[in-house]
Amino acid sequence: MATDLLAKAAISAAAAGLVLALLRRAGPRAGGLAAAVPVTSMPALYWLAAERGAGYAAAAAAGSLWATFASAAMAWLGAAALMRGAAPWPAPLRLHPRGRALLSMVAAGTLSLVVGVLSRHTGPVWCGLVAAVPVVALTTTFIAHRHGGAATAGLFLRGYLDGMVAKAVFLGTLGAAWVLGAGAAAWPLALAGAATMVLVQGRRTA
Questions:
Q1: Whole-angstrom Cα distance, residue 129 to residue 59?
Q2: Largest Cα–Cα distance of the chain, in whole Å?
Q3: How far is CA 115 from the centre of its chain?
Q4: Count of CB atoms within 10 A of residue 102's CB?
Q5: Does the first or last residue of the chain, that is N or C, have fewer Cβ atoms within 10 Å of its Cβ?
Q6: Quick one: CA dihedral 152, 157, 160, 165, positive or negative?
Q7: What DSSP assignment string belongs to 116-156?
Q8: Domain ranges of the chain
Q9: CA distance 133 to 146
Q10: Other beta carbons within 10 Å of 48
Q11: For position 85, what pLDDT does the model report?
Q12: What is the DSSP letter of 90?
């Protein structure tokens, strides 16, 4: 059991590392969009569905959705505060030297481990809430502000808000599909819904 939990934590940490590698090559707004990818909640929900069934995982997805709404509200407030009076030309977003990237990967892996333990001692909603804690976004916002100033951090959060809409569609579709008995087909349906939302947002901001 412990080995299984540690393996899942390692996979979640690797997924977070992949996202952070992409963030280093992106501008602040694109980086925010990428940071909204549910690198911790996706693996956690997958394993909950495999181990506890679709009904349990659907309730966990609802918990993650509520956490997403709360994170979006905080990101909106943060972006509004940072962009007020910020310089018109943000500095380039220089993210995550190896030590900071490792810190975020460890945090993502730890969240996955905590969710695995919680699933054995508490209800699914709490698992979903913990799985959706925005570790990568919080870390990156701090670094963006420290190295690029308020304008850079504000643009990052605006991109993150765009990504949170797609994340909410993903989680809502995933949970609904499980409730309706879609089984494994819930994953491609949820991914298609999120991808459609990203495309719609891209056209709107183009």
A1: 10
A2: 53
A3: 15
A4: 14
A5: C
A6: negative
A7: HHHTTTS-HHHHHHHHT--HHHHHHHHHHHHHHHHHHHHHH
A8: 2-161
A9: 22
A10: 26
A11: 55
A12: P
87 contacts 149 by C-beta, under 8 angstroms:
yes
Sequence-distant (6+) residues with CB within 8 A of 159 are 28, 29, 30, 31, 32, 33, 35, 36
Asked if residues 145 and 152 have their Cβ atoms less than 8 Å apart, the reply is: yes
**What integer pLDDT is reported at residue 96 of this predicted model?**
47
Per the structure block, which two tokens stand in for 185?
Answer: 């087909």
Q: So what's the pLDDT on residue 176? A: 95
Which mean pLDDT values do the consecutive 10-residue runs of the chain (206 residues) have? 70 70 65 72 84 92 92 84 62 53 71 76 84 76 76 81 88 95 93 85 60
| Residue type present at position 173 | T
**Helical H segments across the chain, by residue range:** 2-23, 28-35, 41-52, 54-83, 98-118, 124-131, 135-179, 186-205
Residue tagged 């980086």 (tokens) = 31
